Amino acid sequence: MKCNMKQWVADTINQPVKKGMPILSFPAIQKMNITVKDLISSSDLQARAMQIVAKYTDAAASVSLMDLSVEAECFGSSIRVSEEEVPTVIGSIVNSEEDADALLIPEIGTGRTSIYIEAIEKAAKLIEGRPILAGAIGPFSLAGRLMDVSEAMIYCYEEPDMVHTVLKKVTKFIINYCKEYKKAGANGIVLAEPLAGLLSPSLAEEFSADYVKQIVDAVQDDEFIIVYHNCGNCTIQQIDSIIATGSPFLHFGNAINMAEIMPHIPADVIAAGNVDPAGQFKNGTKESVKASTKEIMEKCCKYPNFVISSGCDIPPLSKWENIDAFFEAVHEYYQANS
């Protein structure tokens, strides 16, 4: 569906009653009687999962898988796949300046990127009435997976040139990946940059935000936006450089108090969050999900540019009754406050 996404952002801000937009895809496996392994291996199943979520929820957008292993696997990383959990990257492939220099930028279509691009193309033909957002990992989060997440933080201090070498390569790859999603019919990308949320403000600007801005500048236009996601606990301190990326839609995790970050967000930029995915959607009850959702809305809905969401990707085995409770709470809040 072709859509003026800048107008969609503006319209969303101007609407007094807003739809919730959780990062919701993997729990569709329960309704499909398949495993996570099945889902990540098939474009047909991924498109069907997005269609099911669109059918069963009134979400503001249709969001594809937040699978932060896809891009690293393309570069040569090993991943751990299970039946019930989202895939994870294991080990590292860049451990020296020589490794960084030798790192090759994969062709788009390598590994599972072809599956994920095809899934968006198929989903775009199945889903109407809401934007379709593909998923991609952010530059520092990808570099961290190639270098080992813990080591990457140290390398920022001890081997900054090596980190920048990797970042330049992964940024080119992410730009190419986003462009293919765009061709496939996506209206935007949820760009997940969680690892940057652990950095100091100055390091976050140097090793993350500056590269995110390159991606935004290269792919964003009237019909395609970057939704920036960061679920780290330092995002409030980093907010100036995050805003400077140019993303018109910022998504924050439950490691922060959403009410504290809202005053920092420009009025023409959406900020979304942040009901606890594990604590509430997966392990909570209908009552606790409703209470948590309404509590955040009570504090944040006074800001027209706030959209209620999950704090991050909702885990695959989260209870659908809890997911339903989230949407019920959104409806009940606006009904009571309209």
Q: Structural class of the secondary structure composition?
A: alpha/beta
Q: Helix content range of the residues, please?
A: 40-55%
Q: N-to-C SSE series?
A: HHHHEHEEHHEHHHEHEHEHEHHEH
Count helical runs.
Answer: 16
Low-confidence segments, ≥5 residues, pLDDT <50? none
Question: Measured on Cα atoms, how large is the radius of gyration?
Answer: 19 Å
The general outline is globular
> Which sheet architecture does the biggest sheet show?
7 strands, parallel
| Mean residue pLDDT | 96
How many extended strands?
9
Q: Beta-strand level of the residues, as a percent range?
A: 5-15%
State the end-to-end distance. Answer: 31 Å
Give the strand order, joined by hyphens, for the main sheet.
1-4-5-6-7-8-9
What this model shows, in words?
This protein is an alpha/beta fold and 338 residues long. Helices cover 51% and strands 12% of the residues. The chain contains 16 helices and nine strands. The strands form two sheets. It has a seven-stranded parallel β-sheet, sandwiched between helices. Helix 12 links the parallel strand 6 (225-230) and strand 7. The longest helix has 25 residues, at 160-184. The mean pLDDT is 96.
